[in-house]
Amino acid sequence: MTDLLPRTQERTAPPAMTVVPVRHWGRRIVAGILLLLLAGFASTVVTNENYHWDVVGQYLFSSRILTGLWHTLELTAISMIVGIALGVLVAIMRESTNPVFSKIAWLYIWFFRGTPLFVQLLFWGYIAALYPTVSIGLPFADGPLVEAEMRELMTPWLAAVLGLSLNEGAYMAEIVRGGLASIDQGQREAGQAMGMTRARILRRIILPQAMRVILPPTGNNVISMLKTTSIVSVVAFPELLYSAQLIYAVNYLTVPLLIVASIWYLLVTTVLTAGQHLLERHFGQGHGPTSAGRTGFWKAAVRLQRRSSGASTPAAAGPTITGGQP
Q: Residue 165 belongs to a domain with what CATH number?
Protein backbone atom coordinates (compact mmCIF):
# COMPACT_ATOMS: atom_id res chain seq x y z
CA MET A 1 0.00 0.00 0.00
CA THR A 2 1.29 3.42 -0.94
CA ASP A 3 0.28 6.51 1.05
CA LEU A 4 0.25 9.89 -0.57
CA LEU A 5 1.35 12.26 2.18
CA PRO A 6 -0.62 15.50 2.51
CA ARG A 7 0.88 18.58 1.01
CA THR A 8 0.33 21.66 3.10
CA GLN A 9 0.71 25.15 1.80
CA GLU A 10 1.22 27.79 4.41
CA ARG A 11 0.38 31.38 3.57
CA THR A 12 2.53 34.00 5.13
CA ALA A 13 1.21 37.42 6.09
CA PRO A 14 1.82 40.08 3.44
CA PRO A 15 4.60 42.54 4.19
CA ALA A 16 3.61 45.65 6.10
CA MET A 17 2.72 48.56 3.85
CA THR A 18 4.02 52.02 4.57
CA VAL A 19 1.18 54.48 3.97
CA VAL A 20 2.31 57.97 3.07
CA PRO A 21 -0.51 60.54 3.18
CA VAL A 22 -0.92 62.75 0.15
CA ARG A 23 0.32 66.24 0.82
CA HIS A 24 -1.93 68.84 -0.76
CA TRP A 25 0.51 71.69 -1.12
CA GLY A 26 -1.86 73.66 -3.34
CA ARG A 27 -4.58 73.63 -0.71
CA ARG A 28 -2.16 74.76 1.98
CA ILE A 29 -0.89 77.63 -0.13
CA VAL A 30 -4.41 78.80 -0.98
CA ALA A 31 -5.47 78.49 2.68
CA GLY A 32 -2.44 80.54 3.75
CA ILE A 33 -3.24 83.27 1.23
CA LEU A 34 -6.87 83.40 2.38
CA LEU A 35 -5.81 83.65 6.02
CA LEU A 36 -3.46 86.51 5.20
CA LEU A 37 -6.21 88.35 3.31
CA LEU A 38 -8.64 87.77 6.17
CA ALA A 39 -6.12 89.02 8.73
CA GLY A 40 -5.46 92.12 6.63
CA PHE A 41 -9.17 92.88 6.33
CA ALA A 42 -9.70 92.36 10.06
CA SER A 43 -6.82 94.75 10.76
CA THR A 44 -8.41 97.46 8.61
CA VAL A 45 -11.76 96.99 10.34
CA VAL A 46 -10.22 97.33 13.80
CA THR A 47 -7.86 100.23 13.06
CA ASN A 48 -10.11 102.26 10.73
CA GLU A 49 -11.42 105.23 12.70
CA ASN A 50 -14.30 105.74 10.26
CA TYR A 51 -16.10 102.77 11.80
CA HIS A 52 -16.48 104.75 15.05
CA TRP A 53 -16.30 101.76 17.35
CA ASP A 54 -16.79 104.04 20.35
CA VAL A 55 -20.19 105.00 18.96
CA VAL A 56 -20.99 101.32 18.38
CA GLY A 57 -20.27 100.58 22.04
CA GLN A 58 -22.31 103.58 23.10
CA TYR A 59 -25.48 102.52 21.26
CA LEU A 60 -25.14 98.73 21.46
CA PHE A 61 -27.19 98.58 24.67
CA SER A 62 -29.18 101.74 24.11
CA SER A 63 -32.77 101.58 25.36
CA ARG A 64 -34.15 102.45 21.92
CA ILE A 65 -32.06 99.73 20.28
CA LEU A 66 -33.07 97.14 22.88
CA THR A 67 -36.72 98.11 22.48
CA GLY A 68 -36.41 97.66 18.73
CA LEU A 69 -34.72 94.29 19.30
CA TRP A 70 -37.62 93.18 21.50
CA HIS A 71 -40.11 94.25 18.83
CA THR A 72 -38.14 92.26 16.26
CA LEU A 73 -38.15 89.12 18.41
CA GLU A 74 -41.84 89.55 19.20
CA LEU A 75 -42.74 90.05 15.56
CA THR A 76 -40.64 87.06 14.50
CA ALA A 77 -42.21 84.72 17.06
CA ILE A 78 -45.83 85.74 16.43
CA SER A 79 -45.47 85.74 12.64
CA MET A 80 -43.84 82.31 12.63
CA ILE A 81 -46.43 80.79 14.98
CA VAL A 82 -49.31 82.11 12.88
CA GLY A 83 -47.48 81.24 9.65
CA ILE A 84 -46.80 77.65 10.75
CA ALA A 85 -50.42 77.18 11.84
CA LEU A 86 -51.64 78.56 8.51
CA GLY A 87 -49.12 76.43 6.63
CA VAL A 88 -50.26 73.19 8.28
CA LEU A 89 -53.92 74.05 7.67
CA VAL A 90 -53.37 75.02 4.03
CA ALA A 91 -51.20 71.95 3.39
CA ILE A 92 -53.95 69.67 4.73
CA MET A 93 -56.51 71.51 2.59
CA ARG A 94 -54.21 71.19 -0.42
CA GLU A 95 -54.08 67.40 0.04
CA SER A 96 -57.82 67.16 0.69
CA THR A 97 -60.04 65.16 -1.64
CA ASN A 98 -62.56 68.01 -1.49
CA PRO A 99 -61.96 70.05 -4.67
CA VAL A 100 -63.18 73.28 -3.05
CA PHE A 101 -60.65 73.05 -0.20
CA SER A 102 -57.88 72.04 -2.59
CA LYS A 103 -58.51 74.92 -5.01
CA ILE A 104 -58.79 77.52 -2.24
CA ALA A 105 -55.48 76.34 -0.78
CA TRP A 106 -53.83 76.45 -4.20
CA LEU A 107 -55.16 79.97 -4.81
CA TYR A 108 -53.82 81.16 -1.44
CA ILE A 109 -50.36 79.73 -2.11
CA TRP A 110 -50.35 81.10 -5.66
CA PHE A 111 -51.22 84.65 -4.60
CA PHE A 112 -48.99 85.10 -1.56
CA ARG A 113 -45.98 83.41 -3.14
CA GLY A 114 -46.45 85.27 -6.39
CA THR A 115 -46.47 88.82 -5.02
CA PRO A 116 -43.58 90.57 -3.23
CA LEU A 117 -43.75 90.78 0.54
CA PHE A 118 -42.91 94.49 0.32
CA VAL A 119 -46.06 95.09 -1.75
CA GLN A 120 -48.17 93.01 0.65
CA LEU A 121 -46.96 95.08 3.60
CA LEU A 122 -47.78 98.30 1.76
CA PHE A 123 -51.23 96.92 0.97
CA TRP A 124 -51.96 96.26 4.65
CA GLY A 125 -50.51 99.62 5.64
CA TYR A 126 -52.75 101.53 3.23
CA ILE A 127 -55.84 99.32 3.38
CA ALA A 128 -57.77 102.16 5.03
CA ALA A 129 -57.79 103.90 1.66
CA LEU A 130 -59.78 100.96 0.23
CA TYR A 131 -61.98 100.23 3.24
CA PRO A 132 -62.39 103.35 5.40
CA THR A 133 -64.76 101.59 7.79
CA VAL A 134 -65.35 98.03 8.93
CA SER A 135 -68.84 97.00 9.92
CA ILE A 136 -70.48 93.78 11.07
CA GLY A 137 -74.22 93.33 10.76
CA LEU A 138 -77.03 90.88 10.22
CA PRO A 139 -78.96 90.31 6.99
CA PHE A 140 -82.08 92.46 6.64
CA ALA A 141 -81.05 94.52 9.68
CA ASP A 142 -81.49 98.28 9.73
CA GLY A 143 -77.87 99.02 10.54
CA PRO A 144 -74.55 97.42 11.45
CA LEU A 145 -74.08 95.87 14.85
CA VAL A 146 -70.43 96.95 15.09
CA GLU A 147 -68.67 99.63 13.08
CA ALA A 148 -65.13 100.98 13.39
CA GLU A 149 -62.64 103.09 11.49
CA MET A 150 -60.07 101.02 9.62
CA ARG A 151 -57.25 103.46 10.35
CA GLU A 152 -57.84 102.92 14.05
CA LEU A 153 -57.90 99.13 13.74
CA MET A 154 -54.99 98.66 11.34
CA THR A 155 -52.07 99.70 13.52
CA PRO A 156 -48.49 99.37 12.25
CA TRP A 157 -48.04 96.31 14.49
CA LEU A 158 -51.14 94.58 13.11
CA ALA A 159 -50.19 95.43 9.52
CA ALA A 160 -46.73 93.95 10.06
CA VAL A 161 -48.09 90.76 11.66
CA LEU A 162 -50.69 90.23 8.92
CA GLY A 163 -48.23 90.85 6.11
CA LEU A 164 -45.50 88.58 7.49
CA SER A 165 -47.83 85.81 8.72
CA LEU A 166 -49.90 85.45 5.56
CA ASN A 167 -46.79 85.45 3.40
CA GLU A 168 -45.03 82.91 5.61
CA GLY A 169 -48.11 80.67 5.67
CA ALA A 170 -47.88 80.18 1.91
CA TYR A 171 -44.27 79.02 2.07
CA MET A 172 -44.87 76.86 5.14
CA ALA A 173 -47.76 75.16 3.34
CA GLU A 174 -45.39 73.92 0.64
CA ILE A 175 -42.82 72.83 3.24
CA VAL A 176 -45.41 70.86 5.21
CA ARG A 177 -46.88 69.38 2.03
CA GLY A 178 -43.42 68.19 1.00
CA GLY A 179 -42.90 66.62 4.42
CA LEU A 180 -46.24 64.80 4.24
CA ALA A 181 -45.47 63.56 0.74
CA SER A 182 -42.15 62.09 1.94
CA ILE A 183 -43.96 59.49 4.09
CA ASP A 184 -44.68 56.20 2.38
CA GLN A 185 -48.31 55.48 1.54
CA GLY A 186 -48.02 52.20 3.42
CA GLN A 187 -47.91 54.14 6.70
CA ARG A 188 -51.38 55.54 6.04
CA GLU A 189 -52.68 52.16 4.93
CA ALA A 190 -51.35 50.56 8.12
CA GLY A 191 -53.17 53.15 10.21
CA GLN A 192 -56.39 52.59 8.29
CA ALA A 193 -56.05 48.84 8.80
CA MET A 194 -55.89 49.49 12.55
CA GLY A 195 -59.16 51.44 12.40
CA MET A 196 -57.63 54.88 12.95
CA THR A 197 -59.29 57.98 11.56
CA ARG A 198 -57.53 60.18 9.01
CA ALA A 199 -57.00 62.92 11.59
CA ARG A 200 -55.46 60.49 14.07
CA ILE A 201 -53.26 58.92 11.39
CA LEU A 202 -52.01 62.38 10.50
CA ARG A 203 -51.41 63.36 14.13
CA ARG A 204 -49.94 60.11 15.46
CA ILE A 205 -48.16 58.57 12.45
CA ILE A 206 -47.54 60.97 9.57
CA LEU A 207 -46.57 64.26 11.24
CA PRO A 208 -44.07 62.78 13.76
CA GLN A 209 -42.19 61.11 10.89
CA ALA A 210 -42.46 64.13 8.61
CA MET A 211 -40.93 66.43 11.22
CA ARG A 212 -37.37 65.47 10.28
CA VAL A 213 -38.12 66.66 6.73
CA ILE A 214 -40.08 69.74 7.80
CA LEU A 215 -37.72 71.06 10.48
CA PRO A 216 -34.63 72.06 8.43
CA PRO A 217 -36.46 74.40 6.02
CA THR A 218 -38.64 75.67 8.88
CA GLY A 219 -35.54 76.59 10.87
CA ASN A 220 -34.19 78.43 7.85
CA ASN A 221 -37.50 80.28 7.55
CA VAL A 222 -37.32 81.36 11.19
CA ILE A 223 -33.86 82.83 10.63
CA SER A 224 -35.04 84.42 7.41
CA MET A 225 -38.11 85.85 9.17
CA LEU A 226 -35.87 87.47 11.79
CA LYS A 227 -34.09 89.43 9.07
CA THR A 228 -37.21 89.98 6.97
CA THR A 229 -38.76 91.97 9.80
CA SER A 230 -36.36 94.75 8.82
CA ILE A 231 -38.62 95.73 5.90
CA VAL A 232 -41.68 96.43 8.07
CA SER A 233 -40.30 99.93 8.43
CA VAL A 234 -42.50 100.71 5.41
CA VAL A 235 -45.50 100.59 7.78
CA ALA A 236 -43.60 102.62 10.43
CA PHE A 237 -43.24 99.80 12.95
CA PRO A 238 -40.19 100.46 15.18
CA GLU A 239 -38.30 97.17 14.95
CA LEU A 240 -34.51 96.88 15.31
CA LEU A 241 -33.37 98.37 12.01
CA TYR A 242 -36.01 101.09 12.00
CA SER A 243 -34.96 102.10 15.52
CA ALA A 244 -31.37 102.41 14.31
CA GLN A 245 -32.56 104.45 11.33
CA LEU A 246 -34.41 106.85 13.59
CA ILE A 247 -31.22 107.42 15.59
CA TYR A 248 -28.84 107.98 12.68
CA ALA A 249 -31.40 110.24 11.02
CA VAL A 250 -30.62 112.65 13.88
CA ASN A 251 -26.88 112.20 14.51
CA TYR A 252 -25.92 111.21 10.93
CA LEU A 253 -23.73 108.33 12.19
CA THR A 254 -25.12 105.85 9.70
CA VAL A 255 -22.39 103.21 9.62
CA PRO A 256 -21.99 102.74 13.40
CA LEU A 257 -25.74 102.34 13.90
CA LEU A 258 -25.94 99.82 11.06
CA ILE A 259 -23.10 97.89 12.71
CA VAL A 260 -25.06 97.88 15.98
CA ALA A 261 -28.11 96.41 14.25
CA SER A 262 -25.95 93.86 12.41
CA ILE A 263 -24.33 92.69 15.65
CA TRP A 264 -27.71 91.99 17.23
CA TYR A 265 -28.94 90.21 14.11
CA LEU A 266 -25.83 88.01 14.14
CA LEU A 267 -26.17 87.17 17.84
CA VAL A 268 -29.84 86.20 17.59
CA THR A 269 -29.24 84.24 14.38
CA THR A 270 -26.47 82.28 16.11
CA VAL A 271 -28.81 81.33 18.95
CA LEU A 272 -31.56 80.30 16.53
CA THR A 273 -29.10 78.22 14.51
CA ALA A 274 -28.00 76.34 17.63
CA GLY A 275 -31.63 75.67 18.56
CA GLN A 276 -32.36 74.44 15.05
CA HIS A 277 -29.43 72.03 15.25
CA LEU A 278 -30.69 70.58 18.54
CA LEU A 279 -34.22 70.10 17.20
CA GLU A 280 -32.96 68.43 14.02
CA ARG A 281 -30.80 66.06 16.04
CA HIS A 282 -33.76 65.18 18.29
CA PHE A 283 -36.24 64.45 15.49
CA GLY A 284 -33.63 62.88 13.21
CA GLN A 285 -32.51 60.14 15.60
CA GLY A 286 -31.85 56.98 13.61
CA HIS A 287 -32.19 58.78 10.30
CA GLY A 288 -29.44 61.37 10.20
CA PRO A 289 -25.94 61.11 8.81
CA THR A 290 -24.55 60.43 12.29
CA SER A 291 -26.27 57.07 12.63
CA ALA A 292 -25.52 56.14 9.06
CA GLY A 293 -21.91 57.13 9.50
CA ARG A 294 -21.51 54.99 12.58
CA THR A 295 -23.13 52.01 10.88
CA GLY A 296 -20.88 52.37 7.87
CA PHE A 297 -17.83 52.73 10.09
CA TRP A 298 -18.55 49.55 12.06
CA LYS A 299 -19.30 47.60 8.88
CA ALA A 300 -16.00 48.71 7.40
CA ALA A 301 -14.16 47.85 10.63
CA VAL A 302 -15.62 44.34 10.76
CA ARG A 303 -14.83 43.79 7.09
CA LEU A 304 -11.23 44.92 7.59
CA GLN A 305 -10.85 42.66 10.62
CA ARG A 306 -12.07 39.67 8.66
CA ARG A 307 -9.66 40.37 5.83
CA SER A 308 -6.68 40.70 8.15
CA SER A 309 -7.64 37.48 9.96
CA GLY A 310 -7.91 35.59 6.69
CA ALA A 311 -4.57 36.89 5.46
CA SER A 312 -2.64 35.97 8.61
CA THR A 313 -4.22 32.53 9.31
CA PRO A 314 -2.60 29.56 7.51
CA ALA A 315 -4.81 27.77 5.07
CA ALA A 316 -6.31 24.50 6.11
CA ALA A 317 -4.33 21.43 5.25
CA GLY A 318 -5.18 19.73 2.00
CA PRO A 319 -6.96 16.40 1.99
CA THR A 320 -5.01 13.19 2.60
CA ILE A 321 -5.33 10.81 -0.28
CA THR A 322 -4.62 7.21 0.59
CA GLY A 323 -4.42 4.68 -2.13
CA GLY A 324 -2.99 1.19 -2.53
CA GLN A 325 -2.25 -1.46 -5.05
CA PRO A 326 -2.99 -5.06 -4.33
A: 1.10.3720.10
